[in-house]
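Notes from hallway chat w/ T.B., transcribed later so I don't forget. T.B. wanted the structure written out for a chain they're using in a teaching module, and asked if we could keep both sequence and structure tokens in one place. Agreed to drop them here.
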Amino acid sequence: MPQGIIFCLMQPTQPVITPRSPRIGSGKRIYAVGDVHGRADLLEKLLGLIFSDAAGNMDNSLIFLGDYIDRGPDSRRVVDVLTQFVATDFNLITLKGNHEEMLLQFLEGEGPMMTWLRNGGRETLKSYGVDVADLYQTSATDEAMEAARRTLRKAMPGSHVEFLAALELTYQEGDYLFVHAGIRPGIPVSEQKEEDLIWIRKDFINSDADFGKIVVHGHSISARPVVSKNKIGIDTGAWRSDVLSALVLEGVERRFLST
């Protein structure tokens, strides 16, 4: 071997692996809408923005994340809009929120009825023409509750009850999972409990765990959409902020529309 020449043994070069950007399938566009909470005016305005934005050559999906009712003044109108939704160039997916579950329990005479009334249920009753004068006291009688329930049952169109009963808990598309509140960290999606899917908050919001998919959720209010490595929150408190937001997904792109 000639002097002055040094041979170095090198390890084979390892390929550099970069994380793949979350995406949905080619040719698809998704509009995911946050908590409406009785703001029919904002819902109709946002739908106008979405319809103007949508591309006719795309497979468009419109996903609502739940909490259509309560707090705002026109829950009945919101449900009317959703049950009468007609758009041949959109796939409509409607998910269940905790407020829909509380209303369903009220209709059946079950669950924390006063909790529902204190968290926007009275506004929903009023939107269906139910007199709530006897329901403002924490000591509202069982007779007053039963009278309100009977009146609501008569006032609600059958299509509204069917709509509420048929709401889905989750929806998946590409690298995204859509759900009202979130998921319990460390548990597969197929094993999640309904209570967590529509009620969970801190244990999910504070988690930086890899959920396997990017979770798109509502339920937890923020001034503007919140994007992190494992989740995207789009409840911008429409009932009090006048801002109803939608996440737009296409390929690897993300953007937002809002009122």
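Follow-up for T.B.: The chain has one domain: 28-258. Might be a good example for the class.
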